[in-house]
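Below is how a single chain appears once it has passed through the pipeline. First comes the sequence as given, then the structure the pipeline wrote out for it. We keep one example in the README because the format questions we get most often are answered faster by looking than by reading.
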Amino acid sequence: DSSVWSLYLKETEKEDRELASSLQVGIDELLIFAGLFGGILTAFLIESRKDMQVDPLQEILHTLQNQFAGTTSPPPPFQVAKSSLIVNHLWFSSLGLTLFSALCAVLAREWLANYIPVSPGSRSSDACERLLRVKRAQQWRLESVVTGIPLLIQLALFLFSAGLVLFTWNSSVALGMLMLFLTGCGIALYILGTLFPLFSPACPFQTTMSR
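Resulting structure:
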């Protein structure tokens, strides 16, 4: 009797490990991408935040002008450009989503680690425990939740691209149009990858939303 349960648990362990491994690969890749993307985004935020603050050189220049003229006129009021506000809102939201997706990925690693037992076991009670574990994972949609985490980083990438289009547009219309074209191509590719599997389930081009 124990040999039957042992054989059953060994076979089901292979299935469980294959499922966990396939999900684990996506989580590891997301963590790497989130780290790299977060570093790049931080560099852009450091540059864009300068537009949200008073330029100290302008203050020094105004002070020197007052000294030469013998006046004490106050500096002109500082106003943040609306485009700078929008860009910073988009990029800070993108950074927040990136950090949140990284947190979810770390938690997902723990969930997958708990999904696979240290040893498969060989008793009927171990088989019952494995069955309950699988049923709970299906009930709480573990696979759907883990595979949905990349949507957060994809949304963060879209927000960053939108901010990048606006940021470059203010500097150069030609460069802004180029970034808009590239962003539009990326969005169109994602939409097609989402819709194609709905019409042809055998289509190999899929996204997270189409699975």
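The first helix runs from residue 2 to 48.

See the next section for the split statistics.
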